[in-house]
Specification:
about 400 residues; alpha+beta; Rossmann fold; Alpha-Beta Plaits; 2 domains; 6-stranded mixed β-sheet; 4-stranded antiparallel β-sheet; 11 helices; 18 strands; about 25% strand; elongated
Amino acid sequence: MGAGDVGEGAPEGRRGGTHLLHAHHPQGRLLPAPRPLRPRFSGRADGALPYGGGGGDGRKRAPLGRRRLPGARNRARGRLHPGGSLHDPLPRNNGGANPVNAVIEAEHLRKAFGELVAVDDISFAVKAGECFGILGPNGAGKTSTIRMIYGFSPPTAGQLTVFGLDITRNAREVKARIGVCQQENNLDPDLSVLQNLVVFARYFNIPASEAAGRARELMRFMALDHRENSRAVDLSGGLVRRLVMARALLNRPELLILDEPTTGLDPQSRHQVWERLEELRAGGLSILLTTHYMEEASRLCDRLLIMDQGRILVEGKPEELVRRHVGRHVLEVADPAEDLTAFLRERDVRYESFGHRVIVYVEDGSDLYREISDRFCQKSCTMRMATLEDVFLRLTGRELRE
């Protein structure tokens, strides 16, 4: 049973025309009736930032009502642009936060389900204000790792702190300060876009008078305002993902956690989600995401780790990992001459052979490309820039994972 399945079968109904909602928490379980969650943020009549008056750099911010809203919808032209002058829904670092401090620290983290070890003795840290990626093939342990981080699944062993708090002992406080986008769509299908946001705001103790305004700001930011009254069940996959992201930002979190946020989206929807995430990161929000899209990881992540079979294989900046494990250029030779591999071994060149195809990794491939083309190319020989996908496939293998 997945996280999104928890609580299914709970009663729903209508009484006197009012929909009785049993909302799903972004952490994956069915939510009880709203009760105080030690709200971190509260409404301010003077319009000042509810973060101690400053951003992560310690500078004073302009009152919310006078700040520009990134991503506001230009109704005249029908496209997104940095305009508007409404309350800014973008999360900011807590006042005085040091960007070098870790918002997540995992030490010798382990998660086992009976005899199955999903996460096996991993250690890493996520710095404040960065976008950190967890990459890996299916079954690598990515989702199990982030479920421990947002408090859905307790660690079997090891130490895990979020905002310096032990997640097992301070789960409620941590959850009030994070936003979570799971793979599963756990929106209420019968409620409109606006209603899904307003109802969910209650679980963070956001006053009703403020919830609708905050929801509409996020709808504009996520380009959903034109579908305010559409039911969730009638939305496309891209609109659903943007609504789930908007919902995760309602409490103005200090950390946003996304589990494969663009899986199943078309290229246009994927790029729109990336643009929103880039704006959030530029605003100082710490982001943790899992993905199997290498282009997504290269574009969004300041640092990342690649894991497989529950263990961390490598960690670092995307460009550093490419240089370290692949080099600058990749040469692909189709149906090469039989003595190509012997030639490469003599020159101590990194390569992979798949019989009908040889892939060569080299820092500067210009001279080698010409020599291979002249002596060993029987069908085709190409040279291209190395990518993070080359690193991923070289470390985790090319076989299918079901």
